[in-house]
Amino acid sequence: MSENISLIALTVQQQMQADTTGHNFDHIQRVVKNAELILRDLPQANRAIVLAAAYMHDLADDKLVTDLAAKQNEMEKLLATAEFESDQASAVMDIISNMSFSANLVERQTLSLEGQIVQDADRLDAIGAIGITRAIYYSGHFGETVYDPLIAPREKMTKEEYRQPGTTINHFYEKLLKLADQLNTAPAKKIGQHRNQVMLDYLAEFKAEWNGER
Ligand code: ADP
Ligand code: NI
Where does the HD/PDEase domain start and stop, copy by copy (predicted)? Predict the structure, then answer.
């Protein structure tokens, strides 16, 4: 392929290295790895679009970016410099705006096959042992309470409500345990099932220890 994925990888690495909210470049590298794994089973997907979106998907996160329009502009420039045709660049930008959990809270967005792959790759990194670690890390960063049996998990949430602090343990019920069922592609579903069980086992153990049962 003629698109310059290495340039995108390097630029994203420079921009994300300092993040301490669980969105750092380690996360990006795992998402790219997950995406490559899923691509093996779906060779009809456009590899350059998948990889560019995987690398760039957290650059315009509204938690981390104040001037969204300026950031999007910068991202479009990066894609042009990396020799993406304009329709391919739009496909990448479209995936990035529509794939996040928060963009899908109220109504589910339609995603291209490439978008479905990147969304799955990102969601796999939010569940399982890595997902548990990221949730605790994120909670600590934002000063969330770990657990309070008197605070019930929130049911249907708007994007604004989702951004309000809850508890680490409730985050599993509010988001993480829902992700495995929402995966799009067959290879991701298989991995997701295992990772979901890892979280269920962890929660059962956590509560038993909390209650002094073992
Ligand atoms: P998205 O970008 O898909 O909207 P987020 O940015 O909300 O997803 O989540 C990024 C990471 O931070 C995930 O691993 C997620 O589990 C974690 N996270 C987000 N919100 C919370 C929260 N309130 N408590 C604990 N972890 C959280
Ligand atoms: Ni991500």
Answer: 20-136
